[in-house]
From TrEMBL:
SUPFAM superfamilies: Cysteine proteinases (SSF54001). This is N-hydroxyarylamine O-acetyltransferase. It comes from the Bacteria. It is an enzyme of class 2 (transferase). It comes from Klebsiella michiganensis. The keyword Acyltransferase applies. The gene is nhoA_2. Belongs to the arylamine N-acetyltransferase family. Its EC number is 2.3.1.118. Keywords: Acyltransferase, Transferase.
């Protein structure tokens, strides 16, 4: 297992077996939303935001901070890819109570296709079809 995945699983408090399965996908999504809070302080301050793997790992895992949807889903997507899930990032929007744009991660594997949106646990509690 890579040092990144070890640190990510530790941050989530997840002790499962990382395999490409629906069970793993749902477990990681639930644990991610429960362990890493939504946070948009850098957006509001305003601070420059970087979405590269190294910066996201440092801020959300080692810095133990939260992040907004682009950061959250970037981190989740990296973890899923390292496990072996086929992922692709795309733009999404939600309109409650106002229109916002966010990054989502569609995950496809064999006979099922799911989408995950980390960082908004009140709206999406687990990856879903």
């Amino acid at each position: 297992m890579s040092p990144f995945l070890s640190a990510y699983f530790s941050r989530l408090g997840w002790t499962g077996t990382p395999d490409v399965s629906l069970h793993t996908l749902r477990e990681l999504h639930i644990h991610h939303n429960g362990a890493i809070p939504f946070e948009n302080l850098d957006v509001l301050l305003p601070r420059e935001i970087h979405l590269d793997d190294r910066t996201l790992e440092e801020k959300l895992i080692h810095g133990r901070r939260g992040g907004y949807c682009f950061e959250q889903n970037g981190l989740l997507e990296r973890a899923l890819r390292e496990i072996g899930f086929p992922c692709a990032a795309f733009w999404g929007a939600w309109c409650w109570p106002i229109r916002r744009i966010c990054r989502r991660v569609p995950i496809g594997c064999c006979w099922w296709r799911w989408r995950g949106n980390a960082g908004l646990p009140t709206l999406v509690s687990a990856a879903r079809p």
